């Protein structure tokens, strides 16, 4: 039996009822009768890794059985996958007609928890896939962050920080999903409140190939500047400030005192400065 890392949730046997003997029997079933787990949190499977696994399966077979369940009310002899989607995909790629399975029972909540725990154990999930799975556990099954953390073997703060990634602008999330930035870069951006400032910092990270530490320093600098900026502007001044930001494509701070005011145009590289000067020229 495969050893599980003790820090990751309750494991498969604790999440779903086991009505078979302790040494559950392994059956071979037609691979076409197995349908994917609808609760699978993982949406990306690397083609090269699948091809390597398929080659191993051609040579050695499926070493670890798939875990499946019988769909409720289904009388057509089909099975629903609980755990082992990579093995199922690779087995199909290898041309297998039948695969070894262990049949168990699982509720929809257990299906999602199991798929999540298995992927966490194998470190297969992307940061956004993990966050989306945590969100589904909370929304669909009314679980608190503390309850989610207990089920997947994480701290509550880890779950909370993961969920915060889903608050980033869509284009930044897409960049994270594509691998242009890492989860560390994304977490650094969460230190900036304003979405447009997040985007500007994200573009600098991508264009400059910045490290996570560089991104954290940059984000802290932006946040510090923003804290010093007066928050209350008249509607007219706020509109002018926004037009300047839009026209120059950078952060602009406008403040007004009793006898005057201050206009600050920020730039974060020589290239940005040249672009601003050209627009002002």
Mean pLDDT: 79
Could you give the count of β-strands?
7
- In the CATH hierarchy, the architecture of the largest domain is Alpha-Beta Complex
Largest sheet: 5 strands, mixed
CATH class of the largest domain: Alpha Beta
| Radius of gyration computed on alpha carbons | 25 Å
Number of domains: 3
Helix proportion range: 40-55%
Cross-sheet strand order for the largest sheet: 1-5-3-4-2
Low-confidence stretches: 1-23
Task: Characterise this structure.
The protein has about 280 residues and is of the alpha/beta class. It has 3 domains: about 10-165, Conserved hypothetical protein from pyrococcus furiosus pfu- 392566-001, ParB domain; about 170-230, Arc Repressor Mutant, subunit A, CATH 1.10.10; about 235-280, no CATH class. The chain has helices spanning about 10-15, 45-60, 85-95, 110-120, 125-140, 145-150, 155-165, 170-180, 185-190, 195-210, 210-230, 235-250, 270-280, and strands at about 25-30, 35, 65-70, 80-85, 100-105, 250-255, 260-265. The strands form 2 sheets. A 5-stranded mixed β-sheet has the order 1-5-3-4-2. A two-stranded antiparallel sheet has the order 6-7. Helix 2 (about 45-60) packs across helix 3 (about 85-95) and helix 10 packs antiparallel against helix 11 (about 210-230). The radius of gyration is 25 Å and the shape is elongated. It starts with 10 loop residues before the first helix and ends with a helix.
Offer a few descriptive terms.
alpha/beta, 11% strand, two-stranded antiparallel ribbon, 52% helix, Arc Repressor Mutant, subunit A, 281 residues, five-stranded mixed β-sheet
